[in-house]
Design brief:
By secondary structure, the chain is of the alpha+beta class. It is about 75% helix and about 15% strand.
C-alpha cells in the first residue's frame, strides 16, 4: 500500500514539474517571438520614415523617377531581408524549445510600392 501511494506521489510530482517546464518553454518562446517582432517593427518604422523622406525628395525637389524607384526598392528589399533573418533566427530558437512558430506576412507600403514583411506567430498545438 505504501509503495502504491509513494509511486502515485512520485508520478504526481514528476507531472507537475513537466507541466511547469512546458509552461516555461512556451513563455520563453513567446518572449523570443515578441522580441523579434519588436525588432522588426522598429525596422519598419525606420524604413517608413526613410521612404517618406525619399518621397519628399522625389515630389518636391525633382529627384528622377528612376533614382526614386531604386531607393525605394533597395530600402524595401533591405527591410525584407533583415526581417527575414530576424524571423528565421527566432523561429530556430523557438523550435529548440520544442515549440512551433511561423512567419505571417504584413504589407508595408514604402513610397510607391508594397513589401511583405514577416513577423512571427507562435502556434499552439
Amino acid at each position: 500500500m505504501r509503495k502504491g501511494i509513494a509511486l502515485t506521489l512520485l508520478l504526481l510530482l514528476v507531472s507537475v514539474f513537466a507541466v511547469a517546464d512546458i509552461a516555461t518553454s512556451v513563455d520563453l518562446a513567446q518572449e523570443i517571438a515578441n522580441t523579434a517582432n519588436e525588432q522588426i517593427e522598429s525596422l519598419i518604422e525606420v524604413a517608413v520614415e526613410k521612404s517618406e523622406k525619399f518621397t519628399v525628395l522625389y515630389t518636391e525637389r525633382g529627384m528622377s523617377q528612376n533614382a526614386y524607384e531604386t531607393l525605394i526598392d533597395n530600402l524595401g528589399n533591405e527591410l525584407a531581408s533583415k526581417a527575414l533573418r530576424i524571423s528565421q533566427d527566432a523561429i530556430a530558437r523557438i523550435e529548440e524549445l520544442g515549440c512551433k512558430a511561423i512567419c505571417y506576412y504584413v504589407p508595408v507600403k514604402l513610397g510607391y510600392k508594397v513589401f511583405l514583411i514577416d513577423p512571427i506567430l507562435i502556434i499552439d498545438d
